[in-house]
Every structure is written in structure tokens, then in C-alpha cells.
Specification:
Layout lengths: L2 E10 L4 E9 L5 E7 L8 E7 L2 H5 L7 H15 L2 E6 L2 H4 L2 H12 L4 H7 L10 H10 L3 E5 L3 H9 L3 E6 L10 H11 L7
Parallel strand pairs: 4-5, 4-6, 6-7
Antiparallel strand pairs: 1-2, 2-3, 3-5
Helix pairs in contact: 4-5
């Protein structure tokens, strides 16, 4: 895996002004982003979110998932803290891509849950990879994370990449009547730590 830093710029948002850092994977050409605020280059753990792209939730305001709400809440918390980073990884639909995600949604409309739909299409429940994260964080000078996530598998995957996770911070937001089954499936089949009561 090779990831190259390409460029950076200011990114004003409703939550605060971030620096947007662009990265490119050498083998695939996939483009990933890091949004940072404050001085990240010292030993104190950095408030962080590793967020995989969800066009439907992040940009189209879908209520079928909690992704858009998680993205917005993470940016808000980082801005309020005045120091932190959000990695935005281009791996739509837990790695199956946008069109296959639409196919999976169609199967969910017919009664399957999110895991069953992926498997019906011939995919594993979660195909996301995190091997680009260490290289991105190294470029930013980040050595330790206070990670906002409900997913212990993500913590394990990042730890395997050599990233020090000093703390896991629960990141529960965006629950609504349209995503109750989705969130419950993430708890029961994917091991997420989420109170669905």
C-alpha cells in the first residue's frame, strides 16, 4: 500500500475552519481526505473519527443509516475541542460501491437486513480496509487517537496497522424510525457497541 499526499487547503464549515488534506492511493488511484484542526504534532492523543464515505447519508441526507449524523457530530466535536482529525475514506457501502449499495437497498426493501443483502450480492458484510490510515496519520504527525466509534472491529483493524488507540469514545447519534433495524443489525451481526433501546 502506498498513499501520497497531494495538496491541502482551508475548508470553512458551519462547525469551524478545517485544513483539508488530499491523499491518493498509488495502486488504485482512490482519493481520501483528512480534515484537521489545531496542532496535531505532539504526543497527546488526538480526537479523531475514521469515517467511510456514505454518499446517501453524508450528502443526500438518507435516514436509512446513521452515517451523515455521525459525520456532522464528529466535525462539530473536533471543532469544539479545537484539535483533532477526521479521516474521510472513499469506500462507499462498507466497500461494495454505490451501485451495489443501491442493489443492497433494494434487497433490504424486500425484507433482508444490511448483512443479508450484501451476502445475497456475493459480498462479505464489511469489505472496508484501513491500511491507508497509518500513512495519512504519519503525514499529519499524529501518534495516538481518541477515536470516536461504536465499532470495536475498526479499533482492532487500526491497531493492527500500528495506530495507537488511547481511548474509544462512543459515537451514538442519528437514530430514527427508518434505521432502527439497520442499527440493531450492526449490533447483533457486526458487533457494534450501540444502545438501540
Amino acid at each position: 500500500m502506498s498513499v501520497s499526499f497531494v495538496a491541502e487547503s482551508r475548508l470553512p464549515t458551519p462547525y469551524g475552519e478545517f485544513i483539508m488534506h488530499g491523499f491518493e492511493e498509488g495502486s488504485t488511484g482512490k482519493e481520501h481526505l483528512a480534515l484537521s484542526i489545531g496542532d496535531l504534532r505532539h504526543d497527546e492523543p488526538v480526537l479523531a473519527r475514521v469515517h467511510s464515505e456514505c454518499l446517501t447519508g453524508d450528502a443526500l441526507f438518507s435516514m436509512r443509516c446513521d452515517c451523515g449524523a455521525q459525520l456532522q457530530a464528529a466535525l462539530k466535536k473536533i471543532a469544539e475541542e479545537g484539535r483533532g482529525v477526521l479521516l474521510y475514506l472513499r469506500q462507499e457501502g462498507r466497500g461494495i460501491g454505490l451501485i451495489n449499495k443501491i442493489r443492497a437497498y433494494h434487497l433490504q426493501d424486500s425484507g433482508l437486513d444490511t448483512v443479508e443483502a450484501n451476502e445475497e450480492l456475493g459480498f462479505a458484510p464489511d469489505l472496508r480496509k484501513y491500511d491507508m490510515c497509518k500513512l495519512m496519520l504519519d503525514h499529519l504527525g499524529v501518534s495516538s487517537l481518541r477515536l470516536m466509534t461504536n465499532n470495536p472491529r475498526k479499533v482492532e483493524a487500526l491497531t493492527r496497522q500500528g495506530i495507537n488507540i488511547a481511548e474509544r469514545i462512543p459515537h451514538q447519534t442519528g437514530q430514527n424510525p427508518h434505521n432502527e433495524r439497520y442499527l440493531a443489525t450492526k449490533v447483533w451481526k457486526l458487533g457494534h457497541l450501540y444502545n438501540t433501546a
